[in-house]
Amino acid sequence: LVGAPRLLQSVAKDDIMPILKPFQSTFRDEPFKALIFTLILSEISVLIANFDIVTTMVSEFFLMCYLSVNLVCILQTLLHEPSWRPRFRFYHWLLSLLGVIVCMTIMLISSWYIALISLAIGVIVYIYIWYAGANKEWGEGLKGLPMSIAHVALSRLDDRPMHTKNFRPQILAFIKCIYNENQHRWMIEHEKVLDLLSQLKAGKGLIIVATIIQGLICCFMLILFLETNKKMRFNLGKYDEKRDIAEQLRHYLKEQMITHKILNGFIDVLVANDVYDGINSLMQISGVGGFRPNTVQKRRVYFWN
């Protein structure tokens, strides 16, 4: 009843789990609510009247904690996270793997059903934090896993032409968006294009939805002489306005893609002085490595204006 309430209060103050917010408060510099909660748990343990069950449950949760720490060390090492710099001279991820195996073995030997219950509680807490908590972003090991997988997959793709049996359309679609003054919102001029894209790819595969905003492009020289030229200050303001419009269009196009069941698409919003230049640039630079569009869908350029 001395250390546990303060530990619970510290976890609550981290804002990781919203359900623990009541335990953040103190009364006369003491974690009163956390102390009461810990006292209730202690009384329940006493009322169980079976020391073997209580010690087994406590041991299972401690072992699960050690298992989680070792598992995180393995992930951080294999993903080559830049923030992961262990100071132990003889550290190797195999030591952490050995720790995971030992913890899991002891948990199952002690009580296999309590071990399964402990693991289930841990998974439930993780899912709860994933969806409802984590107001303070301290980083997460699993977030680096998709990035590493994508990097390896893109590295294995080469620029050689794909065989006809493996060919699949990777579409770069140019969409014209117009601003409705009456409704004060952006609209796609021809929404049926998104329906066509959804049918062509069945909601799967690479789809890049691109649109172009005509406007000024910020450059280094414009920022360099900002303080001495009022005209350049005006131009920079115009660029900031276009940048805000581009961000609004990204959110709008993302919503429209979800509405039209295009779940695996990407969005490119380009600010260019001319529509022709914008289309030419996007057709050359869209995609990464061997994962590039091989099909272009667009209206005639002179219909864009």
* Overall geometric form: elongated
Percent of residues in beta strands: 5-15%
Strand order, largest beta sheet? 5-4-1-6
Low-confidence stretches: 219-237
Tally the structural domains: 2
Q: Rounded to an integer, what's the Rg over CA atoms?
A: 28 Å
Give the integer mean of the pLDDT values: 77
The helix content is: 40-55%
What is the string of helix and strand elements?
HHHHHHEEEHEHHEHE
Write the layout of secondary structure elements.
Layout: H1 3-13, H2 32-48, H3 51-78, H4 93-110, H5 112-132, H6 144-156, E1 171-174, E2 177-180, E3 185-188, H7 192-201, E4 207-214, H8 220-224, H9 230-259, E5 265-272, H10 275-285, E6 295-297
Parallel strand pairs: 1-4, 1-6, 4-5
Antiparallel strand pairs: 2-3
Explained architecture:
The protein is of the alpha/beta class. The protein folds into two domains: 3-147, no CATH class; 164-303, Rossmann fold. The protein is 54% helix and 10% strand. It is built from ten helices and six strands, in the order ααααααβββαβααβαβ. The protein has helices at 3-13, 32-48, 51-78, 93-110, 112-132, 144-156, 192-201, 220-224, 230-259, 275-285; strands at residues 171-174, 177-180, 185-188, 207-214, 265-272, 295-297. It has a four-stranded parallel β-sheet with strand order 5-4-1-6, with helices on both faces. The protein has a two-stranded antiparallel sheet with strand order 2-3. Helix 3 (51-78) crosses helix 5. The relative contact order is 0.09.
